[in-house]
Amino acid sequence: MAPEGVIIDGWNWVIAGYSVTVVVLVGYTLSLFSRYRKSKD
Amino acid sequence: MTLPSPRRWSGWLGLALILVGSYVGLAIAPPDRHMGDVVRLLYIHVPTAWNSLLFFTIAGGFAVGSLWTGQEKWDDLTVGTVETGVVLTGLLLVQGMIWGRPTWGIWWSWGDVRMVSSFLMLLLFAGVLSLRSFIDDPVRRTSWTAVATIIAWVDVPIVYYCVRWFRSLHQAKSTVDTMDPMMVLPMRTNAFAILFLGIWFLTMRAAIEARRKQSEDIPAPAPVGAAEGV
């Protein structure tokens, strides 16, 4: 029996790991765009 | 004929590959017999780890080029590659903790040599960027960055080979012979995806560094009175 809060066996961890990956990669991309634009001005 | 700059195409290629690799890894690849669906985290964690080691090794090469030639472009590329490696290493440590909790029952172990050496690698290369920010003289900043990058690189082979030298939580390297082909495919696709995304990151960061230096070279405007001969 899966503990309360678990979506499917293991899937909550998978979603957490991929979410962190998306946040970091998109966040760093936006940071680079922002710094590039500032360096251009 | 000149090839277009990697900054124009590598990001789009990396994005396309990571979408394909993630789709195969999340929707098509089978669950592992022991880990279940948690194995799908390895299709992104392992490629991130491979690329962090690769980018730090490339940074070491750029640092040697910077010391050897003294040209600014090598320094720009060193900074871009080190920063990309730092982002990937931070990411791989968080991904590893999220995978380790359901698999090993722990978020972190100071007894695992690969975890500790990877964390040390993050600190060392973050230290390179930090050191750089404290030096105002451009010549000293370039040479100190290169030397610090080469010193920090010493930890990279330790991270790679430590699983052969010490027995701890991380297993020795797996081979494709022991994996289902549908597990190998997302791992390799995501490895190339992160490689191309990383190339875009480093070229963008190097371009930002080059522009920052150009703005440093522009002399400060003279006082109004001086221009009028007052």
Explain the overall architecture.
Chain A is 73% helix and 0% strand. Chain A has 1 helix and no strands. Chain A has one helix at 11-40. Chain A starts with 10 loop residues before the first helix and ends with a helix. Chain B has 230 residues and is mostly helical. In chain B, helix 3 runs antiparallel to helix 7 (181-217) and helix 4 runs antiparallel to helix 5 (138-153). The longest helix of chain B has 37 residues, at 181-217. The interface between A and B is medium-sized, with 20 and 31 residues.
Task: Describe the secondary structure blueprint for this structure.
The complex is a heterodimer of chains A (41) and B (230).
Chain A: H1 11-40
Chain B: H1 6-28, H2 42-69, H3 72-104, H4 113-133, H5 138-153, H6 155-165, H7 181-217, H8 224-227
Helix pairs in contact in B: 1-7, 2-3, 2-5, 2-7, 3-4, 3-5, 3-7, 4-5, 4-6
List keywords for this structure.
heterodimer, A: 41 residues, mainly alpha, 1 helix, 73% helix, 0% strand, rod-shaped, disordered N terminus, B: 230 residues, 8 helices, globular
Describe the structure in brief.
The complex is a heterodimer of chains A (41) and B (230). Chain A has 41 residues and is mostly helical.
Mean pLDDT of chain A: 83
- Poorly predicted regions of chain A are 1-8
Strand composition percent of chain A:
under 5%
Helix run count of chain A? 1
Structural class of chain A: mainly alpha
Q: What is the terminal-to-terminal distance of chain B?
A: 54 Å
Q: Fraction of residues of chain B in helices?
A: over 70%
Task: Tell me roughly what share of residues is in helical segments of chain A.
Answer: over 70%
Largest sheet of chain B: none
Interface with most residues? A-B, 20 and 31 residues
Q: What is the C-alpha radius of gyration of chain A, as a whole number of Å?
A: 17 Å
Q: What is the CA-atom radius of gyration of chain B, in angstroms? A: 21 Å
* Alpha carbon gap, first and last residue of chain A: 58 Å
